[in-house]
Amino acid sequence: MKEQYLIVNLIVCFLLFGVLLFIHTQNSPKKLRRIFICLTLSISFWILSLILNILANKEETALFWVKILHFFIMLIPTFFLHFILAYLKIESQRKKPLYLAYTLGFLLAIFNLITPFFISVRYNPSLNFFCAHAQKLYFLNVLFTVLCLLYAFYILFYSYKICEDKIEKVRRKFLFYSTLIGWLGGISNYLINYGIVIYPLFPLGNLTIGVYIFILAYAILRYQLLDIKIVIKRTLVFALLFAIVYGIVSLLVFWINLWLVR
After folding, report:
1. Smallest Cα–Cα separation from 96: which of 107, 110, 111, 81?
2. Which of 51, 66, 67, 63 is nearest to 13 (CA)?
3. Which residues, 6+ apart, have CB-to-CB distance to 143 below 8 Å?
4. How sure is the predictor about 142, in pLDDT bands with cuts at 50, 70 and 90?
5. DSSP string, 42-60
6. Is the terminal CB of the chain with fewer CB neighbours within 10 Å at N or C?
7. What's the 3-state SS for 190-235?
8. What per-residue confidence (pLDDT) applies to 250?
9. May I ask the CATH class of domain 2-231?
């Protein structure tokens, strides 16, 4: 299952950086685009650190990457909440909860990075790599994430229900369901840290982040979600084609290496 988990995260990482490239080239509102890029970068660096954790052969190396990935994990709920508030244009009405989320999120990110009370690593023979292992204060990570998500999804769902503009209502529906699908798979990683491995959540759970990306891309193309008007340049097309071909070749090479090692 280690190889499957690694492949899933490589695919997701590739898709996330593709989204970053795409959003960076579009004419969306600057503030909303910056927040979305911060959110997507946090998810990207979490996945990238997770890949390096899976590949680590030594406990010390694995612990380093586990701490790094948890630093980014604790930033994701805060950026997500900020993104939802910015998209709905209600930041000024929700300043206190947002400031609180940023304060707690950054404190937890730092504490996960520099203290041993949140996370450690333990070799899992069945998974064949050094997995993150929850410590006494790790529940604070889970609690903070769940509270941020509940608050953000409540606001987004309520705004969807009261929205009278038909197109905007569809946009909010796509945003709600795409992010919900992404979080349902992504948050399952907390189970692994408590030693709970449920198939197919492991190793396939993070694929829901890929589903979120595709739904989001469709909503952008079809309904101009995030106020993006598509402007595709020839150089961007060539860049994306090159990235796709490079990604496919890299995955093929990786699979061949795994087969040869066996």
Report:
1. 81
2. 51
3. none
4. very high
5. HHHHHHHHHHHHHH--SHH
6. C
7. HHHHCCCCCCCHHHHCCHHHHHHHHHHHHHHHHHCHHHCCCCCCHH
8. 56
9. mainly alpha
- Show Cβ contacts of residue 119 under 8 Å, excluding neighbours closer than 6 positions: 66, 67, 70, 112, 132, 133, 134, 135, 138, 193
From CA 107, how far away is CA 99, in angstroms rounded?
12
List the chain domain ranges. 2-231, 233-262
The two structure tokens encoding residue 162? 């009261």
88 in helix, strand or coil? coil
Q: Stretch 155-173: mean pLDDT, rounded?
A: 92
Q: Which of 46-50, 152-156, 165-169, 228-232 has the lowest mean pLDDT?
A: 228-232
Q: What is the Cα–Cα distance from 9 to 115, expressed in whole angstroms?
A: 27
Q: Which two tokens stand for residue 226?
A: 């995030």
pLDDT digits (tens, 9 = 90+) for 85-110: 998 999 989 999 999 999 999 999 99
Indicate the SS3 state at residue 166: helix
For the chain, give the longest Cα–Cα distance: 59
In whole angstroms, what is the distance from residue 163 CA to residue 166 CA? Answer: 8
Q: What is the pLDDT of residue 219?
A: 75
Residue 12: what pLDDT?
Answer: 87
Is 74 in contact with 112 (CB distance < 8 Å)?
Answer: yes
Give the HSE-up count for residue 88: Cα atoms under 13 Å, Cβ half-sphere.
28
What's the whole-number mean pLDDT along residues 230-246? 51
